[in-house]
Specification:
The complex is a heterodimer.
Chain A: H1 17-46, E1 48-50, H2 57-65, E2 71-73, E3 83-86, H3 88-91, H4 96-106, E4 108-112, H5 120-123, E5 124-130, E6 133-140, E7 143-148, E8 153-157, E9 178-185, E10 190-199, E11 202-203, H6 209-222, E12 236-239, E13 243-244, H7 247-255, E14 262-269, E15 277-285, E16 308-313, E17 318-320, E18 328-331, H8 334-340, E19 347-360, E20 363-374, H9 385-396, H10 401-408
Parallel strand pairs in A: 4-15, 10-12
Antiparallel strand pairs in A: 1-3, 2-3, 5-13, 5-14, 6-7, 6-9, 7-8, 9-10, 10-11, 14-15, 16-17, 16-19, 17-18, 19-20
Chain B: H1 2-11, H2 17-33, H3 35-47, H4 53-65, H5 72-84, H6 87-100, H7 106-123, H8 132-140, H9 145-161, H10 169-183, H11 190-203, H12 208-212, H13 214-227, H14 233-249, H15 258-271, H16 274-298, H17 313-329, H18 345-360, H19 365-375, H20 381-393, H21 400-420, H22 424-441, H23 456-466, H24 471-486, H25 501-512, H26 522-535, H27 542-561, H28 567-592, H29 595-618, H30 621-638, H31 646-658, H32 663-680, H33 685-700, H34 709-723, H35 728-746, H36 753-777, H37 790-803, H38 808-825, H39 830-835, H40 838-847, H41 852-870
Helix pairs in contact in B: 1-2, 1-4, 2-3, 3-4, 3-6, 4-7, 6-7, 7-9, 8-9, 8-10, 9-11, 10-11, 11-14, 13-14, 14-16, 15-16, 15-17, 16-18, 17-18, 18-20, 19-20, 20-22, 21-22, 21-23, 22-24, 23-24, 24-26, 25-26, 26-28, 27-28, 27-29, 28-29, 28-30, 29-30, 30-32, 31-32, 31-33, 32-34, 33-34, 33-35, ...
The chains are: A alpha+beta, B mainly alpha.
Chain lengths: ~425, ~850
């Protein structure tokens, strides 16, 4: 048993450079793994696809000008030709018709309320819709872009949304982006956020409205998006107060004061996911008390004597609404189509004649329509069935606020469980 | 036959290698033919009083080696082999060995002691040989001193080999009584006292209960302290070794004795012979170690639980301790800096002073400053060196507030001394001290900068100039430059190093080319400093870093040209290749970190990979590891293009994954497989069968160091994420392994801190595997293959949550897995998830975490779950 060695490191740093090389490699690998994981979590869930029309070579070319890395996937299930899948961040760089078509398909479009859905007081939220331009706001790569329903660019600006401005975002992952469903309210230059679709790279498409509203209310304030405008935050964002659709909630939404001009009421089913296109799980309703625009106006802002509607001309001459499946309002004969040079896909404007719309068992049977001409070029879609119907009943026997209150039941009844979810910000 | 054995054993020690090899071969054959007879004859040989000492010793040694091995796997085999041996044979051998303890030949006794202890280490845990300790203790009362001595020595070895929990307290008491009696002043024979003192050193670990008993502890301490005053230097040294061990093992029991201990050690440091004085200093160093650990655990928060309270012995002893240590600094040896193995009073004293500074912080400064001021300008080099060394030693511990003003004054002095002092020893210590200043008082966390735009140029100039000094001085200057660069690590574009970058690189490269760069670790230090300068460089100098690539490549190429090397030259070549590969790795990682430089780096990728593959062909563990690390960096930098290197690289990956012995190599290779997966994504598929096979083998091996296993699990995740649903065919192998590892790591009850830390590493690896697998299968039609595993995974998450001992990293990964599971399985797992604890309490706990990574993962999980259960 010899004496034990008691030498200690002398004039040596505690850690060798070799160990440092190992440690730094491990650190890099850890970071890379984290990035890969984050990419996997964020991306795949928010890739949105849309069916593109067969493109001419020149259109194909234009994609390269857009500097897009398009991921073209063969559509395995349906043989309808190639489907193009855009990552939202890539889509936010789209221009022109592509952008218009893409964005037009991404918004959830509420149907018009033509009758009261069951369980309104338990399964639905209600809030006053701000008057203004419905738009998508996308923040990514250090900038924020808003686009109208038809895809036209509204603003490009810096914002406090995640990755919405080029400040202090150096460390933020390039994957991080947001998509908000907003209404731009001109008078106070504010984006009222009515729904949240993606937040910081996480997709909320398949989340319930209940969850999306909760998330929206907690996140938006957190990042400072509701702060007053500054250099790096050009427009203010605001949430809208959302209520359970009980007596009290409906009353507040209907007559309660809000900092914006009201344009009707929106009803959202609590359990519904964010569904692009027309959906009966989100409804819009208006009357003269809560909206200046109950009855459609013409291009001069006048209420026409006759109700007007826009329908899409189909291959076989039928006139269809924008619904899926569409509702057929009538057809044009071939001679007329040839004579006027119309072709499938055109959006056509009609007036409802005195014959009106007639129904059998709640289904449209006959429509007395008069052809007025092609619709405004800026329009992307025909009217939906519910829109036509709402406009029709507004002119004949409107669905009144009393009807809504009546369907909920007397005040204080049936709303025992619903006081806890006050969503007002 | 007996005669034959003697001759063979003597031949096995012959100077004639042919004779020796022949003898070794005979012994090997003998052992293979009949192990029992072989071991019996060896014990007989060792016992043979008429045999030559040399054959007896070798017989004992072979016997010992037949019972134990360093390598765990081999050790296990030997233990099983002995246990399987015929009982009669074993009894015969053991009886024989015990008899040898009475032999008049010291070497025979000593060898037998060791063999007995080895057998005890195997048999006592099996409850065999119960009479051993009793029969040893009966020897103690025998009259001949040499028997007593041999018996105490045997007890010492026994305590070293055997774990305390297999010896019952009654026997421990008897052993300790015998040992302490043997140490005490009543024992007239010094050999017996020495053997007893050395035995106590090993027996201390058995004395937990006795140290908790005041009377017994007092008695042991008294005897040990008395032994430090023995006239025999060996006994004094052994007694101090006991004190050193007691001071760390029984720190919390020291209070009543600390004054006596100080007196004894102070006397030893000042008056005793060096080996004893060194132990006396070591005692204070180990008390510092204890207190540093305790105070670190306190972490400034005095309500925190710590098993052991701090008694502040160092703080109390400070006024006397510091002067004692300062005196030792003046006892330097000439040229100690040139001797790698040197360890003397001055070195030990300075090291202890550094530990004292770390223990007490600011309090040490006023006690050391007068010594520095008095000696730093003296004409005698020893005084200047001692003063400088004292200064350098106390730079870690005290607050920057306390040191900054002093260092500001000293800095100029140091720079002048480094240039002008006539003594190389002083320059060495001065350069080292500058390095310490930069290490502890320079960097983005230091409020008042020591280095300013005004003095930085001068500092760099002096350091570069010292690169031409003696190798030991140049090496310390490299070290100082290393920390100078490191301090500017996160300063960004304004680094004051930038304007000097080219000059620094040039100087360092020319240092590596110095004829004498092999001395004092100089070449290594120069490359390491070059690495750090590159790591901390900014965008402005990226072009110059890029220019380094062909330079280092050329150097690496040159090492490959050398032919017909002697083994010594080959070792040097390997070392140099290691340094060069390391340097290329650092450069590659640097350039790979940003897009423009990454792109520029690509032009060299082919050549670099070609060189690395040639380095592999030379085969040496450390080079292998460095080249492998570098390859990971290349894979990251090149991305999908890396695919073209795979056909040639693959076999080396396989070799790396098979390297159980050098587990670092295996670990590094596992990491590189991850890099390659991320770079190649699904094009790595053709190599996955082989890689997965190797990884699964690694996991099943009990030879592989356990630290490699967590990264292997993580690597499963990397592979799954890369190849997606193609991972299907590995599920049936990987999942059961993950599942059983998960079960093992779910509970930690009764584990110590180290085990809990390891368990958390393991959990993290397992969870990363699950994450990768789930994400890999996302949106695949084969998702349902994962459904059967979901209940177990959720249960695993619940149980680690219940266990309440996961660290933040595991928490983040675990909650992420919950999200991945929900995300990939969707409504298929909705109800399962709702039943789990994790989706409620655990998720809420994570959502309200302060750690933003945990919070981010939790938010992701919350969303994924809300989608899964709302469908």
């Amino acid at each position: 048993m010899a004496p034990h060695d008691l030498r200690r490191p002398f004039k040596r740093p505690a850690i060798s450079d070799q160990q440092r090389r190992r440690d730094l490699s491990l650190l890099r690998q850890k970071q890379n793994r984290l990035d890969a994981q984050r990419r996997a979590r964020c991306l795949a869930s928010s890739v949105l696809s849309f069916q593109s029309e067969p493109k001419s070579p020149s259109q194909e070319q234009s994609h390269f000008e857009l500097e897009l890395e398009l991921e073209i996937e063969p559509d395995a299930e349906e043989h309808q030709g190639p489907a193009t899948t855009y990552d939202v961040r890539q889509a936010s760089k789209l221009r022109g018709t592509e952008a218009r078509r893409w964005f037009a398909k991404q918004l959830m479009l509420p149907e018009w309320m033509i009758d009261v859905p069951p369980n309104l007081n338990t399964d639905w939220y209600v809030f006053a819709r701000p008057a203004g331009k419905r738009c998508f706001v996308v923040s990514s790569n250090g900038t924020t872009v808003s686009r109208l329903r038809n895809g036209i660019l509204l603003h490009r600006f810096p914002s406090a949304l995640p990755n919405g401005a080029r400040i202090n975002n150096v460390s933020r992952s390039g994957q991080s982006y947001c998509i908000l469903d907003c209404i731009f309210h001109e008078p106070d230059q504010t984006y009222y956020v009515i729904d949240m679709v993606c937040w910081a790279g996480f997709s909320l498409y398949e989340c319930t409205a209940e969850f999306r509203f909760f998330w929206l209310n907690s996140k938006l304030v957190e990042v400072g998006a509701c702060d007053t405008p500054s250099t790096f935050h050009k427009y203010r964002f605001a949430t809208v107060p959302v209520y359970n659709c009980d007596q009290e909630g409906l009353q507040t939404a209907y007559i309660g004061p809000v900092p914006y001009v009201k344009d009707g009421l929106l009803f959202y089913n609590k359990h519904a996911h964010y569904q692009t296109g027309n959906t009966p799980l989100a409804l819009v309703w208006k009357d003269e008390n809560c909206s200046e625009y109950v009855i459609d106006t013409d291009s001069k802002g006048q209420v026409p004597n006759q109700q007007q509607l826009v329908l899409e001309l189909q291959d076989d001459g039928r006139l269809a609404t924008s619904d899926d499946p569409s509702v057929i309002f009538g057809w044009l004969n071939e001679d007329f189509i040839q004579k006027t040079g119309l072709h499938a896909g055109n959006l056509l404007r009609f007036a409802v004649n005195d014959g009106g719309l007639s129904f059998v068992d709640g289904k449209l049977e006959k429509a007395d329509l008069q052809y007025l001409g092609q619709s405004n070029r800026a329009r992307a879609f025909a009217d939906s069935y519910s829109k036509v119907m709402f406009q029709y009943i507004v002119r004949h026997s409107p669905l009144k606020i009393e009807h809504l209150f009546a369907s909920i039941g007397p005040l204080g009844d049936g709303d025992i469980a619903s006081h806890d979810v006050e969503m007002a910000a | 036959m007996a005669m034959e054995v003697t001759q063979v054993l003597l031949n096995a020690q012959s100077v004639d290698s042919t004779v020796r090899k022949h003898a070794e071969e005979s012994l090997r054959q003998f052992q293979e033919q009949n192990l029992s007879v072989f071991l019996l004859s060896l014990s007989g040989e060792l016992a043979g009083e008429d045999k030559p000492v040399d054959s007896r010793k070798l017989a004992g040694l072979i016997l010992k080696n037949a019972l134990d091995a360093k390598e765990q796997h081999r050790k296990y085999e030997l233990v099983q082999r002995w246990l399987a041996l015929d009982v009669g044979v074993k009894t015969q051998i053991k009886t024989c060995l015990l008899q040898i303890l009475s032999s008049p030949v010291p070497d025979a006794r000593s060898t037998a002691s060791q063999v007995i202890a080895k057998i005890a280490a195997i048999e006592l845990p099996q409850k065999q040989w119960p009479e051993l300790i009793g029969s040893l203790l009966s020897n103690i009362h025998q009259v001949p001193a040499h028997v007593k001595q041999a018996t105490l020595e045997t007890l010492g070895y026994l305590c070293e080999e055997v774990s305390p929990d297999v010896v019952d307290q009654d026997q421990v008491n008897k052993i300790l009584t015998a040992v302490i009696q043997g140490m005490s002043g009543n024992e007239g024979n010094n050999d017996v006292r020495l053997a007893a003192t050395r035995a106590l050193y090993n027996a201390l670990g058995f004395a937990q209960a006795n140290f908790s008993n005041d009377m017994e502890r007092d008695y042991i301490m008294r005897v040990v302290c008395e032994a430090t005053l023995s006239p025999d230097v060996k006994i004094r040294q052994a007694a101090f070794e006991c004190l050193v061990s007691i001071s760390s093992t029984y720190y919390e029991k020291l209070a009543p004795y600390i004054q006596d201990i100080f007196n004894i050690t102070a006397k030893a440091v000042r008056e005793d012979e060096e080996p004893v004085a060194l132990q006396a200093i070591e005692l204070w160093s180990s008390i510092c170690d204890e207190e540093i650990d305790i105070l670190e655990e306190y972490g400034g928060d005095f309500t925190a639980d710590s098993d052991v309270p701090c008694y502040y012995f160092i703080k109390q002893a400070l006024p006397a301790l510091v002067p004692m240590l300062l005196e030792t600094l003046l006892k330097q040896e000439e040229d100690q800096d040139l001797d790698e193995g040197a360890w003397n009073l001055a070195m030990a004293g300075g090291t202890c002073l550094g530990l004292v500074a770390r223990t007490v912080g600011d309090d040490i400064v006023p006690l050391v400053m007068p010594f520095i001021e008095e000696n730093i300008t003296k004409s005698e080099w020893r005084q200047r060196e001692a003063a400088t060394y004292a200064f350098g030693s106390i730079l870690e511990g005290p607050s920057p507030d306390k040191l900054t003003s002093i260092v500001n004054v000293a800095l100029n002095f140091m720079l002048t001394a480094l240039t002008n002092d006539p003594n190389s020893h002083v320059k060495d210590t001065t350069a080292w001290t500058l390095g310490r200043i930069f290490e502890f008082l320079h960097g983005s966390t230091v409020e008042t900068p020591i280095i300013t735009p005004a003095n930085c140029p001068q500092i760099i100039r002096v350091l570069l100039q010292s690169m031409n000094d003696a190798p030991n001085v140049a090496e310390k200057a490299c070290g100082a430059l290393y920390f100078l660069a490191q301090g500017y690590e996160d300063i960004g574009s304004a680094s004051p190093i930038t304007p000097y970058f080219q000059e620094i690189v040039k100087s360092l490269l020319s240092v590596t080319d110095r004829e004498d760069a092999g001395e004092s670790r100089l070449r290594t230090a120069a490359y390491e400093t070059l690495n750090e300068v590159v790591r901390c460089s900014t965008d402005e100098t990226a072009a110059m870093v890029l220019q380094l690539v062909p330079i280092i490549m050329t150097k690496l190429h040159q090492t490959l040209e050398a032919e017909k090397l002697s083994s010594d030259e080959r070792e040097k070549q390997n070392e140099l290749q290691g340094l060069l590969c390391g340097c290329l790795q650092v450069i590659t990682q640097k350039l790979g970190a940003s897009e423009p430089t990454q792109y520029a780096f690509m032009q060299f990728a082919d050549q670099i990979m070609n060189l690395f593959l040639r380095v592999f062909a030379c085969r040496s563990a450390t080079v292998h590891e460095e080249a492998m690390l570098a390859i990971g960096a290349v894979a990251h930098a090149t991305g999908p293009d890396f695919a073209k290197y795979m056909p040639e690289l693959y076999k080396y990956l396989e070799m790396g994954l098979q390297n159980f012995e050098e587990y670092q190599v295996c670990a590094v290779t596992v990491g590189v497989v991850g890099d390659i997966c991320r770079a190649l994504e699904d094009t790595v598929l053709p190599y996955c069968d082989g890689i997965m096979t190797q990884l699964l083998k690694d996991l099943s091996s009990n030879q592989l160091h356990r630290s490699v296993k967590p990264p292997i699990f993580s690597c499963f995740g990397d592979i799954a994420l890369a190849i997606g649903e193609n991972f299907e065919k590995y599920l049936m192998y990987a999942m059961p392994m993950l599942q059983s590892a998960a079960e093992l790591s779910a509970h930690t009850s009764g584990a110590d801190d180290e085990m809990i830390e390891y368990t958390n590493l393991l959990r993290n690896g397992i969870l990363e595997a699950y994450s990768g697998i789930f994400q890999g299968f996302k949106n695949s039609p084969k998702t349902q293959l994962l459904i059967p595993y979901a209940p177990h995974i959720l249960q695993f998450l619940d149980s680690i949550y219940m266990e309440k001992d996961m660290d933040d990293v595991v928490m983040k990964t675990a909650i992420g897995v919950l999200g991945d599971l929900a995300d990939t399985l969707g409504s298929n797992a909705g109800s399962l998830i709702q039943l789990s604890l994790s989706c409620k309490e655990f998720l809420n706990e994570c959502l309200s975490s302060d750690d933003h990574l945990i919070k981010e993962s939790a938010e992701w999980a919350k969303m994924a779950i809300s989608r899964a259960i709302s469908v």
